[in-house]
């Protein structure tokens, strides 16, 4: 014991240090347990609506046309043109200069033929929404995109519910 510290003061300091050390160890252990297999997942923060396309999608590496556009890969663009049936849907012959996608919100970038005809994009942007996830009429919406891709529509309706629950999103 240091000279000048009374026994009671020494015991009090040791108790405080012991409690702080125990709390620190407990916090570390709880943090490790949260990352353990089978532990409940921490709630994920949802991306801002401004980071989503007008349909609610987040464009990115998962999209073959988005990747092909950035890589300027004519062979991949041709494959997407074929697989997505752009000739049948839009009457567009393959041309590497017209088969592209930068995303419907890419500033300063042109929109492709699908975006120019997208009724979801027109509706959402026309109503001043960042995304149709803000629209209270999303679930019953029967725009072409949702008719062509009903599973995607259902995913967006479920995503909208997550935004309402997690972010307190007020639907318009």
Which structural class matches the secondary elements?
A: mainly alpha
Q: Any low-confidence stretches, pLDDT <50, length ≥5?
A: 19-37
Helix proportion: 40-55%
Order of helices and strands: HHHHHHHH
Main pleated-sheet profile: none
Total of helices = 8
Shape: extended
Number of strands: 0
What is the C-alpha radius of gyration, as a whole number of Å?
Answer: 27 Å
| Beta-strand content | under 5%
Oligomer: single chain
Mean pLDDT over all positions: 83
Number of domains: 2
Termini distance? 69 Å
Structure in words:
This protein has 8 helices and no strands. The radius of gyration is 27 Å and the shape is extended. About 11% of the residues have low confidence. Helix 2 packs antiparallel against helix 3. It is mostly helical and 172 residues long. The chain starts with 6 loop residues before the first helix and ends in a 5-residue tail after the last helix. It folds into 2 domains: 42 residues; 119 residues, no CATH class.
């Amino acid at each position: 014991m240091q000279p000048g510290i009374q026994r009671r003061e020494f015991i009090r300091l040791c108790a405080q240090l012991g409690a702080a050390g125990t709390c620190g160890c407990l916090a570390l252990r709880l943090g490790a347990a949260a990352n353990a297999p089978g532990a409940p997942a921490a709630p994920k923060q949802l991306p801002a609506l401004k980071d989503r396309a007008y349909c609610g999608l987040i464009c990115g590496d998962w999209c073959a046309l988005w990747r092909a556009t950035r890589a300027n890969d004519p062979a991949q663009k041709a494959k997407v043109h074929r697989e997505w049936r752009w000739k049948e849907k839009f009457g567009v012959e393959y041309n590497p200069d017209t088969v592209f996608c930068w995303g419907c919100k890419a500033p300063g970038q042109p929109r492709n033929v699908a975006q120019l005809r997208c009724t979801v994009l027109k509706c959402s942007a026309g109503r001043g929404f960042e995304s149709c996830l803000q629209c209270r009429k999303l679930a019953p919406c029967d725009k072409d995109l949702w008719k062509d891709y009903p599973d995607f529509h259902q995913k967006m309706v479920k995503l909208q519910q997550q935004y309402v629950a997690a972010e307190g999103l007020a639907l318009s």
